[in-house]
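Worked problem 6 (solution included).
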Amino acid sequence: MFRTTAITAGFLMLSLGTAAQAATETAIVAGGCFWCVEADFEKVPGVKSVVSGYTGGDRANPTYQNHDGHFEAVEITFDNATISYADLVAKFLRSVDVTDDGGQFCDRGPAYRTAIFPTDAVQTAAAEQAVAEGEAVLGATIVTPVLAAKTFWVAEDYHQDYYKSSDIILTRAGPKQKKNAYAFYRESCGRDARVREIWGEQAFLP
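Solution. The predicted structure is:
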């Protein structure tokens, strides 16, 4: 009897461990400045972590000063028992300017374009469906592409949770002092105002 109970208990522990592992998934998206995307999605229930980084290009070991060919992006780790990949991508689309293929808000150039990087066929289908549904809502073409995932390179430590900083604005030319730097940057770029203009009540601005 004891042996049967032990085997059963072991099977249950293995099953629970497998279920817990299966519930964890990652999503990779690019939405302009990675500080803003990180700030938005760390507030979403079910999201476990959001990491800023670079992806989409061929350059190995990119840096903030040298990531030509890459998008600024984030890797979102989430519990898919709490929020699905499809819902996460739908929120993402509603947090950016999906009509702009030249950058986002005050950040211009290829590194600041939007994109979705699915990691498998299931994510690809969900991402493409989310884009189609978004186009139906807007009655306009969404220029955010769905691209095959490439290596995600984690950005420098000082970029992680940058939005929580209050006194430094980081620029390609170096840091500049500014009280409430992130809030100043986001408002000055008009990010939230533009997203509301496009999406109205569906805008995702946590």
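Discussion: The chain has one domain: 23-202.
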